[in-house]
From TrEMBL:
<keyword id="KW-0489">Methyltransferase</keyword>
<dbReference type="InterPro" id="IPR051537">
    <property type="entry name" value="DNA_Adenine_Mtase"/>
</dbReference>
<dbReference type="InterPro" id="IPR038333">
    <property type="entry name" value="T1MK-like_N_sf"/>
</dbReference>
<keyword id="KW-0175">Coiled coil</keyword>
<feature type="region of interest" description="Disordered">
    <location>
        <begin position="674"/>
        <end position="694"/>
    </location>
</feature>
<feature type="coiled-coil region">
    <location>
        <begin position="622"/>
        <end position="653"/>
    </location>
</feature>
<dbReference type="InterPro" id="IPR003356">
    <property type="entry name" value="DNA_methylase_A-5"/>
</dbReference>
<comment type="similarity">
    <text>Belongs to the N(4)/N(6)-methyltransferase family.</text>
</comment>
<dbReference type="InterPro" id="IPR029063">
    <property type="entry name" value="SAM-dependent_MTases_sf"/>
</dbReference>
<dbReference type="InterPro" id="IPR022749">
    <property type="entry name" value="D12N6_MeTrfase_N"/>
</dbReference>
<protein>
    <recommendedName>
        <fullName>site-specific DNA-methyltransferase (adenine-specific)</fullName>
        <ecNumber>2.1.1.72</ecNumber>
    </recommendedName>
</protein>
<dbReference type="Pfam" id="PF12161">
    <property type="entry name" value="HsdM_N"/>
</dbReference>
<dbReference type="GO" id="GO:0009007">
    <property type="term" value="F:site-specific DNA-methyltransferase (adenine-specific) activity"/>
</dbReference>
<feature type="domain" description="N6 adenine-specific DNA methyltransferase N-terminal">
    <location>
        <begin position="10"/>
        <end position="107"/>
    </location>
</feature>
<feature type="compositionally biased region" description="Low complexity">
    <location>
        <begin position="674"/>
        <end position="684"/>
    </location>
</feature>
<dbReference type="InterPro" id="IPR004546">
    <property type="entry name" value="Restrct_endonuc_T1M"/>
</dbReference>
<feature type="domain" description="DNA methylase adenine-specific">
    <location>
        <begin position="138"/>
        <end position="443"/>
    </location>
</feature>
Amino acid sequence: MAVKKSELYSSLWKSCDQLRGGMDASQYKDYVLVLLFVKYVSDKYAGRDDSVIVIPAGGGFQDMVALKGSKHIGEGMDIVIAELAKANELTGIIDVASFNDPEKLGSSPKDRVDRLTALVGIFEEPGLDFSRNRADGDDILGDAYEYLMQHFATESGKSKGQFYTPSEVSRVMAKVIGIEHATKSTQTVYDPTCGSGSLLLKAADEAPVELSIYGQEMDNATYALARMNMILHGYNTAEVQKGNTLADPKYLSELGGLKTHDYVVANPPFSVKAWSNGVDTAHDPFDRFTGYGVPPVKNGDYAFLLHIVRSLNGTGKGAVVLPHGVLFRGNAEADIRRSLVQRGYLKAVVGLPPNLFYGTGIPACLLVLDKAGAADRAGIFMMDASKGYLKDGAKNRLREQDIHRIVDVFGAQRDEPGYARMVPYAEIERNGYNLNIPRYVEALGGEEQQDLDAHLRGGIPVADAAALAPYWAVCPALHDALLGPGDRAGYLSLRVAPDAVRGTVYEHPEFQAFQRSIEATYGAWAVRARATLLALSADTKPKQLLPGLAEDLLHTLAELPLLDRYDVYQNLMDYWASTMQDDVYEVVAEGWLARPTKSKKGHYTSELVPRELVIARYLAPAQAAVDEAAAALEEATRAREELEEEYAGEEGVLSDYATAGKLDRKAVAKRLKAAGPASGSAPAKRGRKAQATTGTMFAAQEAAEAPTPPDTDADELAAVRAVGAAFEAEEEAKAAVDKAKNTLEAGLAKRYLAPLTADEVRTLVVDDKWLATLHQGLSHELARLSGTLARRLTELAQRYAEPLPALEAEVATRQAQVNSYLATLGFSAN
């Protein structure tokens, strides 16, 4: 079976739980990622003569499995890892952590054995069998690695931002430098502070050709992560060097200067105070400060930026994450900033949301560098993308729609009010080369202006209604259906009651026609998407499938008014992440098979084809019978509870048969048996059955008409018989529900085990599951459109509904009432 991302992520994080208590969360990666590496390369390459990774005798994952339960398991795992490292020149990379460390893995030998045995067992689970995963080229392991890196960064209590750049930010950076236009494998991409390599890899992944990869990282453990990361992502030839980039850059030209690159991406540590240690700032041999000036001794932001500028070739492009302070700080940094602007190297500044990065909550920005065409550049493209994000736990993150919007607007270099604009150099010069984004991109929204005259005299201001112009452009007659002339110029009145606004909008012919046009346009995309999805096979690359569907959706919806196409796009991306991704990987690996499973209760279902889909398409009558029986049971229960409430209270005639207001069924049955059958018992039974389906009090009426034995309380006996009938009717209704459910389950079993054909599975999954769910998302967006208009108009109507004179008159009336009441009590209002 294919490795599913959700199962893989769950298993890997479960392995982290085995390490809790013995070490800081920042150290989990030293153990879990090594085991992930050993397991992956063992599954993929063991026994192969043509593999890029050699799995030597005694150096594979199965050798670790053989150690489970052994008192020497920790020592043995270290030996296995050392053998694998030695065979692949990975010494000092994958063998940096000891699995025999009592301080981190348990001082008690038994505790250590149990912990490591459980840890190996997690990686031994079938869900982590990479040898059977057929979705090659889709980097499922690389994604899992990124998942773990994100969680390590979240959990870690120290240095947590130094080795991981959120993948969403990495993708934005890769796209804004235009790396997708790379054409030759000789072109290079470089990260001078590469950390675990995630940013560097995201950039390389965007290129249509395999670029030459270069990275440098100072921290030893993080450098090791980067080397493993490259291999897990399939970039075995990537070069990653260890060392201080500013003091000891490893990539040099033949002449001894810095090697230059086509693309550079970087997320250097913010505002490093000791950046100049080991750097000859007066006579830098790499010529990084010439023409710019030396950055402040206690702030290294511009030191990294100038290193990047010097590392770009004549047409090179780069993107670097830095704190907003680089945009406006003065003194030496102001001089450097002015020089960068005047040379034309700075193409764009993109303001990012706050709290995106691990280890800091401050907002950061992207500086986009481009030496190509620098001499002809007329300004800097400024973007404020700080408002587009989703709060995710303690952090914020960019949504897919936020990423796409940044990239789309940047690529088109188009002005958007409150979001982006091209700022000419003359304006920047007038501002003293201060690049603080709010100086150039004014935020929309803010505090809403109130109309004082409308508060005084009522009416909806024309200006407020005009702000809804996009709606009126699509539905001009809807404006007149909702709004009419006011009692004076410049003001309107609402033609319908406030609570009728939404219905008026939704039912208006123009709005319904608008909805149909959107449905038709979306439907054209759905037809194309359906054909693509029905054609899924073992040759499909899931990661290539999604962009095609998503980009087609955005293009299809591009010209539609009102509808935010990015919201619809986000719906697709969210559903892909939550459900479709796993489904597609399963179909690619296993084919169109339902693969049903049976629960302990004997009920069949399937992850790919859930039972609800099979029921809806093939067993609707059986489900209707269950629903009908359940409704009858609910009615029978309600009737029994009504009798219980009437008779079982402290003053009720059956209080002797109840505890805490609940009747004892056995006591009631015993009393009925003692009383003997009522006359016409057969009709009584039919009456009880009718009660279960109609909720009548037939049984109570019957009991009242039945003869009463001598020396018996007639009211009590009638109540006992009525309650007994209600209990019996409820039991009959329960039996009917069970019977209907058994019939439904039998039908499901027959359908699943027949089995469902490949064509049936295709229809159920593509039409009834994927496309139906996505269409629900579109319906939600359409409902939101009508709701937004209705809510705004209702808000305006209510805001100005009671003008000040009316309020003053009401206050006067209330005051007169209070004065009158005081007078009756002998008090004077004066």
